[in-house]
Fold this sequence. Notes:
Blueprint: H1 3-10, H2 24-37, H3 47-56, H4 64-72, H5 80-92, H6 97-105, E1 114-116, H7 117-126, H8 133-142, E2 150-152, H9 153-162, H10 166-169
Amino acid sequence: MSPKKAKKKQSGEASSNVFTMFEQSQIQEFKEAFTIMDQNRDGFICKNDLRDTYAALGRLNVSNDELDEMLKEAPGPINFTVFLCMFGEKLKGTDPEETILNAFKIFDPEGTGILKGDEIKYHLMSQADKFNEAEINQMFTMFPLDVAGNLDYKNLCYVITHGEDKEDKD
């Protein structure tokens, strides 16, 4: 691996460069929007920043629950890169559920709907756009393995494409 690539990986940058999803002028517009929302200028959008942004737009009665729900959409603290990723996902959309399911089915020839956690971890960390350990841990936190150590990939695909658990919808 070249020193530049090694340095990039060590710095913790996202391995799927979100900045390539947009033109430079769009990125600048997003940066301006982020700066306006980051009311306390700490480089992160927090609940108070969202509340202040709503107040600046004339909406003064935003509930804590509503703000918490917005913040839950982010995988962690909302810095500019996360902000850009969130817009990228909303604007670009995701693959259809069937496409994502078919990708997982490659590793599930019996069609059980589950994959061994250790196996999926190995493949995600060693193939194509490799996940790092923190990304794997984050995925397993959001989509815990069952008691046998298996991942319910059908539910994972549903959440990716619909934004909620099938069970939560019932």
